[in-house]
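Sorry, any thoughts here?
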Amino acid sequence: MSDHFVGKIKWSTVDQTIPQLKLKFLVDVVKNKNTIPDPTVLSVTQRGITIKDTSSGVGQQSSDYSKYQTVNKGDFVMNHMDLLTGYIDIAKHDGVTSPDYRVFKVKSEKVLPDFLLKLFQCFYKLKIFYGFGQGVSMFGRWRMVDTNFQNLKVPVPPIDVQKKILNIVQTEENQYKNKLEKIEKQTELLNKYNQSYLDKLYLDLIEHPDTKMTKLKYIAEFVTGNSLNSKQKEMFSEEVEDFYPYISTENINMENEEINYNGKFKIPKNESKFRICPINTILFCTEGGSYGKKFQITDREVCFVNKLCSIQSNLDSEFLYRFFMTTVFKNEYYPRRNGLIEGVNMFEMGEIKVPVTSYQNQRNLLSQLNKKYIKFNSVIKKNKQAKELLINIHFKKTLQILCGNLT
């Protein structure tokens, strides 16, 4: 194995004939404050750098871009504050970006920017950068400090070899993208079919003479959860025997339709100030970036964050849960957004009408739904697993090519 790693992680087998240099000899980190009143704002996403739409008011916005840093075309922008879901790219436009990002440029003639970019993108996708992180991941972001970044050694083959490597990487990437596109297209079609099938079942039920559309506030009780201050976060991160899992939005997984009960915090059952969500009850995200997008049914009693709302109703929980997935509900829900924080308050939520029918009719609908909807959902989950495996294989292979293993 190579000795180019910093710390305990040996992230690749490198051709020993290839020189290995620390990043501080290859790049310059720059941080220049923005002076433009109305700049082009650049965001780093999993698909690269994008230009942020600051006119729509959607997403996180800033009222003052004077603290942002300038980015020139050709600069690297790296989200080193989030090594798990962050990413890196080369800017194709001049603009500004978050002061929390790392902006740097190649200063050495020994390395091509595209060679470094491909290498760094592998480091993100394979969670190699994550291994160099520091901080307390439970209470903040897991970040790569400047010292670790500057001292990280990378393989630097001759420029002509880098060009050859990049050509091979491009061929591999084209094949990878074709396979990825096929999986994504099939998944998109399955999702569209599932949505239309779900909508039709509920629309047919709504038109049934035994169904009455009733405001949610008349058949349900809404209870919001409790936030945790820094002292409570420290206190409730300790191991206890008899506790309620503390559920936040990040613990709700809509793709797998499950709640992760093994979160960061555990609330002792003798803590009387915390609200309890009963078993078989919907936890619904009412504000923030996931409002209306994340909700699941509990299979045990839990405590929960204030962005989540416990919805206890007279309807079957699964019946109401599936209704929240319909286009009928979404068309009623999202226009009710209000306030500076994205979300829908409990009053507006209660004004939305839901189909109320006999318990037997509810179960009949769910039985029909399970025949096709659940079946195709399982295919969608398998596609997700196949996609994750494909991504992992591609970036492992790409990393080996970049490290000089061309055969």
